[in-house]
Amino acid sequence: MTWFLYALGAPILxxxxxxxxxxxxxxxxxxxxxxxxxxxxxxxxxxxxxxxIALFTKGIFDISLHDKLILIISGFFSLGWIILxxxxxxxxDVSSVVPWFxxxxxxxxxxGYIFLGxxxxxxxxIGSAIVLFGGLILSLEFGEENRVKFKGKIALMMIVSxxxxxxxxxxxxxxxxxxxxxxxxxxEYIGLGLAGLIIWIFIRSYRNAFSHMIKSGGRNIFxxxxxxxxxxxxxxxxxxxxxxxxxVTLVFLVATFQxxxxxxxxxxxxxxxxxxxxxxxxxxxxxxxxxxIGVMVxxxxxxx
Length: 304
Hints:
Elements: H1 2-27, H2 35-56, H3 65-91, H4 94-97, H5 104-115, H6 122-138, E1 140-142, E2 148-150, H7 152-175, H8 181-202, H9 204-245, H10 248-255, H11 258-272, H12 283-303
Antiparallel strand pairs: 1-2
């Protein structure tokens, strides 16, 4: 069962990153567009990673201009989903945002069908519908006096975010063969860094938010962001290693428990470390989340 420990370690690490993201958005991101600082941090990491890849990889310029452009565009989509995800965290709890990521495989297979000629079985189509239905439940807020509110803004943000994330993955796969993985990664991260540079030049509010975070948080905030990126890569490594030891389907199924882990972590933080993350855990708030997550996990089990 060694594969299971690696497969479970990945969503645990990713869930920790989700908590850090919520903490940074709520506690340290300020200004007209506070998430701009975190967005530019991600872009900065992209530039650093591309530089490191270039130092250790040969033939990064040997692929066609067409493939380079597609990979750069995939980097733009990468930053696009990050922006919308962080914007969603500004106005909604992390435990309500993260489950939406279970829709990424659904959109991924749709684009895989369009661009890569991949097909969906009838069971996978049913699973996709169930996952999307769970997302609909997640978009409902049950208030006092049995009032139900549809959180359309969050739903729209996260649907588009997940579409961007799916496009990012599909475009990367579209032009990448196994021996060109690091070459493709270089151009993808170049796209991420270029997108951040464009934002820096043309969106003043994002630039101001970044400057404010540097001045107010300084090295601590920078270190936390770098650590967060490192934890993300650690989760990716554990997930990839698990894929070498066990069937892909089983590894993907374990990864679908990330929203449950996030919910458990937010409960622990609310109970013992409210200065990090604090959420409402009344029955009317928690019950719809549990139902939605349960439905989406069941749909994912059918899907995978």
